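We emphasize that the prediction below concerns an isolated chain of 192 residues; any contacts that depend on oligomerization or on bound cofactors are therefore not represented. The input was used exactly as deposited, without trimming of termini.
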Amino acid sequence: MMRHSVWTSVMALGLLAGCATGTAERYSVPPAQASERVSIRYGSVEIRDVTLPSYAAAEEITSQAPGGVLTSNTSVLWADAPERAIALELVRHLATLTGARVASDPWPFEAFPDATLEVRFEQLLAGADGVFRATGQFFVAVEEGRERSGLFDLSVPLGAEVSAEASPAAIATARGQIILDLAAFIAKNGLS
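Result of the prediction step, given as a token string:
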């Protein structure tokens, strides 16, 4: 009798765990298409680090509600870890925009990169006003030569106000566009 109740309890816990994890919706960021070419001074660039505010680094998709409160839902998630995904998006966009050899840390090539890039986001958020914003600072380090840093403050429309329930898909699309815009901004202002 004891075995039966233990087995029943284990099965019930398994079913509950399956139900809890099966309800989450995951959203990937659709790739934005670069339409320009930017000439830079480096043949190879390593994305060493991307840091995000805690709400933007979380698995849950966060947006700002009217009044400034940040909200998220444990059943609406990013398809990939945000810091990893954004680093890979920057790699793709910088490689496409510049034609340079670009990779994220750890650097996979034998020869060292000509430059390393670090991006620190202060804000990466879908605002209650229907605008997705990215603010922060970038750093370009080189072995010998001109190291650079700069501030960025970029925005793209969400297509709907968050207060009017902008969809997670709209937020994902806006994030994709803003990372492309950031890659172009860094290429022009930090790598050229």
